[in-house]
Amino acid sequence: xxxxxxxxxxxxxxxxxxxxxxxCSGTLPVPDGDLIIFYGKDEDARRLDFGGxxxxxxxxxxxxxxxxxxxxxxxxxxxxxxxxxxKLDSTHFAVKLDLDTSGLLxxxxxxxxxxxxxxxxxxxxxxxxxxxxxxxxxxxHKDTPRSTNMxxxxxxxxxxxxxxxxxxxxxxxxxxxxxxxxMLAGHNEARIGYVAFFSDVDHEVTLVKSGYRVTITYNLYFxxxxxxxxxxxxxxxTGEEFRSAFVALLADPTFLPTGGHLGFGLRHEYPLxxxxxxxxxxxYMKKYLKGSDADILLVCEELSLEVELNIVFEDYxxxxxxxxxxxxxxxxxxxxxxxxxxxxxxxxxxxPPVDGTxxxxxRSSHEGQVDVALQxxxxxxxxxxxxxxxxxxxxxxxxxxxYGYIALIVEVGKLGDRATRATLSV
Length: 426
Description:
By secondary structure, this protein is α+β, with helices and mostly antiparallel strands. It has two domains: 23-112 and 121-223, Jelly Rolls; 231-412, no CATH class. Helix content is 19%, strand content 36%. Strands 20, 21, 22, 23, 24, 25, 26 and 27 form an eight-stranded mixed sheet that branches. A seven-stranded antiparallel sheet has the order 1-16-12-19-10-8-4. Helix 6 packs across helix 8. It comes from Hermanssonia centrifuga. InterPro entries: Pro_4_hyd_alph_FE2OG_OXY.
């Protein structure tokens, strides 16, 4: 008999997943010398102290910059109707500010990250210097991750007088504003503004009305700890509520009494294409989960519940799930995609196409036919999609598309034996 997750149980578990804002920001007092930069494209490098930079000095910096481009489909695009700003590559400037000794990298690690990620090691790679003068802006966009272990960006704002140029951020229907001009105004001591955010956050720089907004951008990466150190993972403060709710449900005799599988749609976007060749994307992604995605993974591991990233494919009438990403690009099929994946990759049928609101096991057209009675706690999202093109043969050959959506799948054991230490059989 299949255990059914009730609406009340689903709501309790879903509401316990806390989605922490995907950014942190503020101002940081620094020694006077940390406001100095050196820049130039030839032997005549210049020194600029933002502690008392004149209008002429800022204008020279702006004129030294090239027109800033932006990334689109792995290409650098120059379009001043979308982005108008100046930039210097990291080979053409140096900063006195040290992120480690200033404590800023530690602030970012503990404020932005959660759980074991907040205890781990991160690296900040110096990337660009940007100058936004009067009339400059950057329309909404996302940063392009340089690799799978790149998780975000850190932007330093120097204390120059400017009006406008606020950074607005949005993610999953919520929005936030970081107005460096207002935050840095009126301080007597040396101080910088900072904002760090995840790579999947949409953001824009609003129109600069006056002055110069000067920023340094760093790419943020997860890195492995030294071999002589080991870290004990711990659940984050936001993950504790989810853990408490899950523990209570596992003790509830009405909660999946015969066991079952739960699905959690990912809330963050990850660079699927940046994995090493020959590596399964799902296993590679797992160690770079962030935010509430990482909380769910860690809580389930601590509770001895088998939890894995799986990929979900929807066909005309069926939805199937696989523990590894299949090779679909360029194949020729004379059968339904779901039938092919079940035959060649041992994909498991979980029901008809997922609408994100109903349990696959409850739908009459597939009653008694599913291989795995997967029940969704949070909606399957389209943030992480593996898209493939293939040729489907019917009466004639047609170009078809396969979309694989990645989600966290948790196996729960029966009442009295909840732990599921064996490999997830889906």
